[in-house]
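lol so apparently i was supposed to do this last week
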Amino acid sequence: MSGRPGVILDRDGTIIDVVRDAELGVVTTAFHPDQIRFLPGAVEGMRHLAEAGFTLAIATNQPGVAKGQIPWSALERTHAALLRRLQEAGVPVAAIEVCPHHPEGGPGGDPALVQVCGCRKPAPGMLTKLAEALDLEVAATWVIGDTPSDVEAARAAGMRGAMVFDPRRCELCPLREGPGGMGARARPEIAGPRIDSVAEAILATWARAAR
Ligand SMILES: [Mg+2]
Ligand SMILES: [Zn+2]
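anyway here it is w/ magnesium ion bound
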C-alpha cells in the first residue's frame, strides 16, 4: 500500500447546485462561472477533509459537450473559477477530471466525443486516473457523490462510497426512498444530507481505523 488517502467528489448536486430555470422549468448544470452556487456545507466539509490530510479531487461527467449543449471552453472557464473560489475559501483541490463523452451525443455535438468510454461514471476510469496521478491509497480513498452511479464507480475502482442525499430535492425523486433502497453495488457506506455531515462521518471512520 502506498500513497495518501483521498476524497474524490462529484461536482453537480454534490459540491455545487444544479441550475434551475424557473420560467422554463428546466434543470441544467453550471457552465458559466456566474452559475456556481455552492451547496450548504460543501465548502466547510471539504475544508475539514483537507485539514485532516485527505487529498481532494473532483471527478465529473459533463456530456454537454458531446451533446452539443455547451462548448469545451465554457466548461474550462467554469472549472477554473470553481477551483479558484475553493482555493480562496481555504480548500485546495489537487485535480479535476472531466468525462466529456456521451454514448449517443446530440445535435451539434463533437462526434469525437460520442462514444462508450471507460471514464463516464459509473465506470471507474476517472477515479483510477486520479488515484495514479495523485498517488492516492485506493482502499483509503472515498468518493462523495449524489447518485448511485457515483457509488458504483467508487466500488468499481476499489474505493469507498459516500452519498450526499437530501430527500427534499425533487431531482432525486427516484431516490426518495433513501440510499437504503438501492442495490448493493450502489449502496453507500455513508450517507448524509450535506458534505459537512458526510465529512464528519468519514473523519470518524478514519479516527476509528487509526486507533
Ligand atoms: Mg451529481
Ligand atoms: Zn468518458
